[in-house]
Amino acid sequence: MVASNDGPAPTNIVTNGTINGTNGVTNGAVNGITNYLTNIKLSGNGVVYSSPFAGQGRPNKFYPIDGHYPDSVPEATGKRKVVGGGLAGAAAAGSLSRLPDVELKVCERADKVREAGALIGVMVSAMRSLSRMLSPAGWESMQRLLYRGDGYEGINHRFWRTGEIMTCALSPHTPRYMEEGRISRQALHDVLMQDVPKGIMHFEKHVLRVEKNADEGATGMRIFFEDGSTEDTDMVIAADGLYSKIRRGYLPDSEVRYRGRVSYRQIVPMELVKHIKGLPNDTSSWRRNGEVVFLSKLEPGVYSFVTMATEPEEYANTLRWQHTMDKEGIDRLLEHFKDWDPIINEVIRSLPSVDAYPLNAAPWMCDLIRDDAVAFVGDAAHPTAGAYGAGCSFAFGDVRALYLSLWRSHNSATATSGTAYDVPYSLHLYNETRRHFLHRVEQQIQMDKVDLAYVSAAETDEGWIRRYRERFTINWWLLEHDVDARWQEVEAMERHMYKNKNAAADIAKAVSMIVGD
Ligand SMILES: Cc1cc2nc3c(=O)[nH]c(=O)nc-3n(C[C@H](O)[C@H](O)[C@H](O)COP(=O)(O)OP(=O)(O)OC[C@H]3O[C@@H](n4cnc5c(N)ncnc54)[C@H](O)[C@@H]3O)c2cc1C
């Protein structure tokens, strides 16, 4: 099949598990749904693309803005600084650089983008955001790289001792090309970087703090770097991760604490594990009382081992992010998982080494904005690495909401005088779009602990499996959250409510209006 996103495409109808049309689709079947898509196209391996979603679903299709992809930084009157160049920072750089009248700069502490070996589950919610954020080339890369397995089950949940499948994360109404998939963090980061214009990313720029610019008549923020330099900017996008210095500047009590489990992870060439008999071809998670082992293929030729294992705090304190443990780590894992499904130990034995990372967290921010000029995105805003395998979904949702909010307040007529955007209003829209949803997710994390305690108290394996199935919730509201839909809901309300002292009276008047008034 030939990859293409340009020009007129045939109209096909997807109905009840098959796709009819002239494209000869074999692999793009959709289970059990009747769905009418127009302009379906194919690219590589039978992946179904359909505008307006497949990388063509840029804002010009949904909203009146010409979202093109500049090769160089556009002429600017609005300065934005992104602090942190991880998944959230790279997504912000690629996305926000397409806004008009913006000068964007990313300040990244590291000297280069590093391989940080982890499986990233890209959930449906993330796919929705990416389909509207990425360039066609970026979206094409995602379709090529994501590992989805053979079926439509998402990640299988298996019983830790036997590997029996207990449940799975079905999403039967989602077309194949929008289904969740698995990819390495590095490959995902590379995809995002494809859309970042040259000259935007600045390495070895370690930000110590930000402050409101106190110069007379000044607005915006001043950024203080470790090398003693400072820079002024209209707006800061804090994407500096779980340990965010910027967050702790505003919330000194936002203490990052160990949450009882260590993540051991390794990404290896498929060659190292392909000899293992009975290695599942799906993405599977083995579960036991809060401990999890994930095994999965990722992008072509790559296999991933990730586990979250209960470890004492004294031991966890000796570990660091990307801390490589050779034989000592492998031996520890073999001992820890000796009673689990034997396939897990076989995989562990095939690993040359393993990285260990203590899973820390801090309370999530109630408001994602500060000083009418700072927006928090990604783990900086919701510091719990890996919740529901949806950390990147949350980060991309943040970036997408921020993009839409800034776009909404852009006024090209005032751009020449340096006020192309109403930043405070944009940040208000952003905060209202994200904070309620994220608060609800954080609540769910707490409530899930009650279910976990109930399941863990089972006295037999059969009882454990029964309780797990009974309490497992599929969480589409979270994993498939559509940030554009939420943003539309907020914006349609806030255009009437924002700073409107007469909002209550206006609403009362509207209630009594008849259409045409
Ligand atoms: C074991 C594990 C498994 C996970 N699995 C999944 C999964 O399956 N699915 C999923 O969606 N998510 C998963 N996550 C979470 C996901 O990795 C994070 O949510 C995501 O990486 C957050 O991106 P971020 O850009 O906000 O933060 P980071 O990726 O941490 O990036 C922050 C960046 O900011 C830079 N920085 C920090 N401080 C400064 C400073 N002062 N000045 C300048 N730069 C700075 C850092 O160098 C870094 O590059 C997992 C996490 C872990 C630990």
Automatic annotation (TrEMBL):
Domain FAD-binding: 82-420
Entries under Pfam families matching the protein: FAD_binding_3 (PF01494)
Gene3D superfamilies with a match to the protein in the record: FAD/NAD(P)-binding domain
Keywords for this protein: FAD, Flavoprotein, Oxidoreductase
Keyword Glycoprotein belongs to the record: no
Top-level taxon of origin: Eukaryota
Protein family per UniProt: Belongs to the paxM FAD-dependent monooxygenase family.
Designated name of the protein: FAD-binding domain-containing protein
UniProt organism field: Sporothrix stenoceras
Biological classification of the source: Eukaryota, Fungi, Dikarya, Ascomycota, Pezizomycotina
